[in-house]
């Protein structure tokens, strides 16, 4: 348990200290959220109804699909996994702990978006909080699992980027529906499920 | 009699059709420092990786502390310490976090004193990528020894280290040896291997070319002992005299240098000659061939024991 706590603490801090992870966990989703909030809400007012679910899903996709696979492949290529194995760190911890810390970062980002969107952009809060939380958790777990899988099966860093982008780009367009209005949103998409009205 | 801690019999490692290690056998006793030498591609790293449980041997028997590394790795991990050739830690981990993390997985108390001893106390909160190469290697060494392993594997431990750190490492190795730790040292630094190792094995194309103490190995060479002589009137520089057992000679500054196969008759003859010529001996130095000389001889001739 002590080992798990130390490992979890380190991985969580790495998600903030590491510039690439800081970008993908926080700066990119929150920066994009602010940019769309200030621009899209002005030119397309109905978007404010969609901004919370759209940006939460976007944050999940960014932190997981772009943030998880590459460090896993780099760790394998640079001998970090070997070093971990020799020192008795189980493979399951190497895969699960970064995934769990990413989910914790996502909870923080989701919290920031959910709290600030009504105040900044007059966005409506979710009506069904239980559904909102459950769907957030389901989407986070699904995307994290997929990202870990990409990290495990990718032979090189270059292939990882290709695989990640291949999943991220269409998922962002159709999953988070960031650039389409509520009425045109893809039925059954995660952001539809997180719908606030 | 000391117990055998590492036992290797007819060990073979192949990668597809390439034979990296070809039926080598050796054993290492408790508390021994065993040097593993060889040119690049000789099979040192493959041997180490199989001993550490990172790779499965393709043939033969490998035992460390009585265990087969790949099968009983969960037990073995607390008995071995490994300093890998490339310092491999996540770039954002700090030395303090790494010590806490790895000691927790080894189930021992974190030893922050090691950071101080290895000159990393001031860098304890710096991220790994901010450390210099030498500091990264010292970090890897601290992690390898912090759980007091029974067997320590050091792969090029002094590469990139400054003189002070190198000396600290050597003294630490001496202390570990006194405490009964068996050390396997893979290195390209022949002087280090000669100075520290009780025995060395020279690997060549996947086979053991020579195994024994550094003294045994150097004594068994072509025997070109270097004898440097300086006299007051430089009689040896002005006249060409052939002495017994001398293979060839040369001149360096005021010294006449002879390379002899048998130093006894050569030195006697040189001294007699100086006395006969009424010259005065100022300096006479005898240098046995070093392990490096012997290593170069073995690798160039492809000599296998």
Overview of the structural elements:
The complex is a heterodimer of chains A (197) and B (305). Chain A has helices at residues 2-17, 19-43, 47-66, 69-77, 80-86, 91-121, 129-153, 157-175, 190-193. With 197 residues, chain A is mostly helical. The relative contact order of chain B is 0.13. In chain B, strand 6 (151-155), helix 6 (163-178) and strand 7 (182-186) form a beta-alpha-beta unit. The two termini of chain B are 26 Å apart. With 305 residues, chain B is of the alpha/beta class. The mean pLDDT of chain B is 86. A six-stranded mixed sheet of chain B has the order 5-6-7-3-8-9, sandwiched between helices. A four-stranded antiparallel sheet of chain B has the order 11-12-10-13. In chain B, strands 2-1-4 form a three-stranded antiparallel sheet, with helices on one face. The longest helix of chain B has 16 residues, at 163-178. At the A-B interface, helix 1 and helix 5 of A face helix 3 of B.
Overview in brief:
Chain A has 197 residues and is mainly α.
């Amino acid at each position: 348990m002590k080992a798990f706590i130390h490992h979890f603490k380190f991985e969580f801090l790495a998600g903030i200290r590491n510039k690439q992870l800081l970008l993908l966990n926080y700066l990119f989703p929150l920066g994009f959220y602010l940019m769309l909030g200030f621009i899209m809400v002005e030119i397309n007012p109905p978007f404010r109804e969609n901004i919370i679910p759209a940006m939460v899903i976007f944050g999940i996709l960014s932190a997981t699909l772009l943030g998880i696979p590459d460090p896993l492949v780099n760790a394998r290529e640079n001998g970090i996994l070997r070093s971990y194995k020799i020192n008795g760190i189980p493979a399951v911890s190497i895969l699960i702990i970064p995934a769990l810390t990413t989910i914790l970062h996502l909870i923080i980002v989701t919290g920031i978006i959910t709290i600030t969107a009504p105040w900044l952009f007059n966005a409506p809060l979710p009506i069904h909080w239980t559904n909102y939380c459950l769907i957030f958790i389901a989407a986070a777990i699904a995307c994290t699992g997929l990202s870990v899988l990409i990290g495990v099966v990718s032979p090189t860093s270059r292939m990882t980027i290709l695989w990640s982008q291949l999943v991220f780009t269409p998922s962002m367009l159709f999953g988070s529906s960031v650039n389409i209005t509520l009425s045109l949103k893809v039925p059954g998409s995660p952001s539809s499920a997180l719908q606030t009205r | 009699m000391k117990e055998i801690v590492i036992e290797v019999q007819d060990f073979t490692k192949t990668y597809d059709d390439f034979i990296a290690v070809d039926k080598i056998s050796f054993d290492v006793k408790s508390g021994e420092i065993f040097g593993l030498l060889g040119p690049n591609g000789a099979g040192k790293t493959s041997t180490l990786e199989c001993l550490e449980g990172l790779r499965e041997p393709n043939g033969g028997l490998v035992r460390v502390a009585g265990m087969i590394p790949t099968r009983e790795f969960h037990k073995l991990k607390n008995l071995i310490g490994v300093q890998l050739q490339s310092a491999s830690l996540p770039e954002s981990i700090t030395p303090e976090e790494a010590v806490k993390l790895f000691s927790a997985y080894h189930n021992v108390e974190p030893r922050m004193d090691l950071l101080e001893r290895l000159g990393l106390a001031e860098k304890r909160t710096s991220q790994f990528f901010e450390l210099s190469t030498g500091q990264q290697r010292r970090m890897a060494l601290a992690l390898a020894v912090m759980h007091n392993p029974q067997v320590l594997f050091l792969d090029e431990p002094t590469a990139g280290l400054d003189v002070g750190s190198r000396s600290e490492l050597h003294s630490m190795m001496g202390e570990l040896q006194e405490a009964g730790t068996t050390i396997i040292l893979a290195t390209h630094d022949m002087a280090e291997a000669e100075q520290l190792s009780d025995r060395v094995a020279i690997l060549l194309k996947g086979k053991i070319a020579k195994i024994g103490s550094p003294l045994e190995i150097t004594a068994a060479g072509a025997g070109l002992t270097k004898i440097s002589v300086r006299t007051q009137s430089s009689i040896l520089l002005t006249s060409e005299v052939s002495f017994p057992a001398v293979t060839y000679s040369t001149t360096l500054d005021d010294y006449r240098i002879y390379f002899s196969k048998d130093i006894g008759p050569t030195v006697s003859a040189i001294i007699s000659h100086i006395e006969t010529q009424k010259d005065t001996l100022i300096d006479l130095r005898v240098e046995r061939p070093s392990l490096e000389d012997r290593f170069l001889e073995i690798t160039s001739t492809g000599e296998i024991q």
